[in-house]
Amino acid sequence: MKVIIIDPGHGGNDPGAVNKGSFEKNYNLILAKKIQSYLQNNYEVKVLLTRSSDTTVSLDARTDFANKEKADFYLSIHQNSGGGEGFESYVYINVGAETKKIQNAIHTRTTEVMNKYGARNRGQKQANFHVLRETKMPAVLLEVLFIDNEKNLALLNRGDFQNEVSAAIASGTATALSLKQKQPDPKELFVTLAGAFEQKKNADERVQFLAGKKISSYIDEVTISNKKYYRVQAGAFQKRENAEAHVVKIRALGIKDAYVMVKGEEGTKTPEPEPPKPEPPAGLTIQGKTVLTAEEMERFVKRVNPDAPSLALLYVQIGQVYGIRADAAYAQAIHETGYFRFQGSVKASQNNYAGIGATGKGESAVFNTPQEGVLAHIQHLYAYSSTEPLPPQYPLADPRFELVQRGSAKTWNQLNGKWAVPGTTYSTMILEIYKQMLNESKAPLQERINLIDEQIKEI
Ligand SMILES: [Zn+2]
């Protein structure tokens, strides 16, 4: 079996190129891992990384490792900087035709993705880089994009871009090295589910919605633990990658409960490997009392991000109208926006603090003001946690309110698999932040109590 070394540039003490809080080393590692799994999932090949975490590895150690493994190909992943824009690839000076062929295959496939996302093709180049010179096998180094170019950096932060560019690099590599494709296991079928419902009416609506987006689907009735479910099946594939690509497309329409299910050849006769709606344990309710003050909530955020916008008071005021725990909702916003640093695909100017999708487009919603954004977030939580009509105080701001199965998540745990996919850790992450917020707010109070106690003692 062929051996490929993927070398995520820099790491540990060496961040590589830096743009404010964004480090080259992190993007190199993300892409390298994606390329590795894409290759290993689809081809008969052994793929090793020169580092698989944020550690310091010398250039010598990297090339020694590749030489010792007698690798067939060495691929180094970097991000550029210095005021340019776009993608370029490098091989060593005076390399043979074989290495040039590999460079060309990877470069060509990658450029297709760059074109799609509007990034420039800077060409196939040669350089006297250590990792290209000291490796005994064909070696290519990619400068994927410029970390100090804001448009390029925004792309690097997008999950869809990361996936597509990694797949392109991997497939270019596979073509050039003539890697053998993995044969799909004929017993396995990868089914794309676009939601599962207890009521058929909701499943029907989902099928219609998808049809409007030119995605055909049908309802598959299953009984799991004596309970009947209507699953919306939107395609079945022999290859997992195809099913996953389809899920990405469906999620982009705002259907966040789409996922891939592996189905045996026997279909529904085999035990279901993944029941669609395991009812999670109760836990903290979404509706309830807000215990923290806006000041306490903001103090918590600003310790991490001093530039965070002032939204806590809006959360408290609007949360009260809908009976939503505003401090826990605020913790959800912290999770969704990365402490309001907005380094993901949603931009700060969208005022979208909870990753709410737009109707129709495969994008996240845009709100005109911070107040409208907070309102939409709270209303979306209200849609999940209540079956009551909207209170009259505010107009409807949540574009997806009507698409929520009303009352389907009374607790934060029950949002798993509904608000975000994969759905097993979403609530844990939110509640962990919320718990930290609660604990940190206790400390100054405790100090005051101690002070008061001391005073009492002195009397
Ligand atoms: Zn670099």
Explain what you see.
The chain is of the alpha/beta class. The chain has three domains: 3-176, 3-Layer(aba) Sandwich (Aminopeptidase); 188-269, Sporulation related repeat (Alpha-Beta Plaits, 2-Layer Sandwich), CATH 3.30.70; 294-441, Lysozyme (Orthogonal Bundle). Helix content is 41%, strand content 17%. It has helices at 24-42, 59-68, 97-116, 130-133, 150-156, 159-176, 200-212, 240-252, 294-304, 312-322, 326-337, 370-385, 426-458; strands at residues 3-8, 18-19, 22-23, 46-49, 73-80, 87-91, 121-126, 139-146, 188-197, 218-224, 227-237, 258-264. The strands form three sheets. It has a six-stranded mixed beta sheet with strand order 4-1-5-8-6-7. A four-stranded antiparallel beta sheet has the order 10-11-9-12. Strands 2-3 form a two-stranded antiparallel ribbon. α9 (294-304) crosses α10 (312-322) and α10 (312-322) crosses α11 (326-337). The longest helix has 33 residues, at 426-458. The N and C termini lie far apart (82 Å). The relative contact order is 0.08. It binds zinc ion. Zinc ion (ZN) binds at residues 9-10, 16, 24, 78.
What is the overall number of helices? 13
What's the number of extended β-strand segments? 12
The level of helicity is: 40-55%
Task: Report mean pLDDT, rounded to a whole number.
Answer: 90
Ligands present: zinc ion
What's the short version?
Helices cover 41% and strands 17% of the residues. It is built from 13 helices and twelve strands.
Layout of strands and helices, then pairs:
Layout: E1 3-8, E2 18-19, E3 22-23, H1 24-42, E4 46-49, H2 59-68, E5 73-80, E6 87-91, H3 97-116, E7 121-126, H4 130-133, E8 139-146, H5 150-156, H6 159-176, E9 188-197, H7 200-212, E10 218-224, E11 227-237, H8 240-252, E12 258-264, H9 294-304, H10 312-322, H11 326-337, H12 370-385, H13 426-458
Parallel strand pairs: 1-4, 1-5, 5-8, 6-7
Antiparallel strand pairs: 2-3, 6-8, 9-11, 9-12, 10-11
Helix pairs in contact: 1-6, 3-6, 9-10, 10-11, 10-12, 11-13
